[in-house]
Amino acid sequence: MLDNKQEYLQEHNIAQLMDSILRNILQDLPESPTKYIHDLLERPIPPQIIIAGPPGSGKGTQCQAIVERFGVVHISSGDLLRAEVAAGTEAGKMAESFIHSGQLVPNRLVTGMVRRRLESDDVKEHGWLLDGFPRCKEQAEALEAAGIVPHVFILLTVDDAVVLERIENRRTDPATGNVYHLLYNPPPPEDAALCDRLIQRDDDHRSTVLSRLKVYHETIRGLKEHYGTVVETVDGEASIKHVMEGVLAAVEKRRLK
């Protein structure tokens, strides 16, 4: 009997549902908590999703699929950072000073940018998909301290050898920006001019990829421990179609209904 109850709680994400309700109450401090809870449950609870994976795991493609299916707001920490710098905000200027000096942007700055975006009306209405953040356990703890907790943490798994094959064989056409892959999407051999001008981006060099993988493996362990109860692992080496099916199924499984 106890096993059946445990299965029920897990299948219906009851712990996450109660946690979400409590966090909303503490954030809004309603005069009538019971009415607030009733009204809250009258409308769908927007999804809260984090996606992670090594470089070259196809996160961008899967983010598009999640947005199309569930209508959430895609929040990329890299895009946020570039937007703040371009807009010349105070946070952007501070971040730019670190970038120009070759230093990593401090956690507090990036976390602040992400938190402000998560407080936007469109995000509150439609839910969110965090991509590229948090990158370490410390950032995850900072988000949780602010009441920001995902319903699901999707982890794309790809072997290092596959990552290297995917990335170091990429070539870019500087004239058009088109990207080719020497094994899977090679440039047309009859176009000699195109083949001659293709370049390998600095980020795609083997030494750079290995360095990024080292950092990734050092940090993902802490994130898996932190988000253990909501982690959904998806094989990122399968076909794009099968990866997409796995990712969408993981989000659906963890939705609070």
UniProtKB/TrEMBL annotation:
It comes from the Eukaryota. This is Adenylate kinase. Keywords: Kinase, Nucleotide-binding, Transferase. GO terms for molecular function: AMP kinase activity; ATP binding. Gene3D superfamilies: cAMP-dependent protein kinase regulatory subunit, dimerization-anchoring domain (1.20.890.10), P-loop containing nucleotide triphosphate hydrolases (3.40.50.300). Belongs to the adenylate kinase family. The lineage of its organism: Eukaryota, Discoba, Euglenozoa, Kinetoplastea, Metakinetoplastina. Its EC number is 2.7.4.3. NCBIfam families: adk (TIGR01351). PANTHER family: NUCLEOTIDE KINASE (PTHR23359). InterPro entries: Adenyl_kin_sub, Adenylat/UMP-CMP_kin, Adenylat_kinase_CS, ADK_active_lid_dom_sf, P-loop_NTPase.
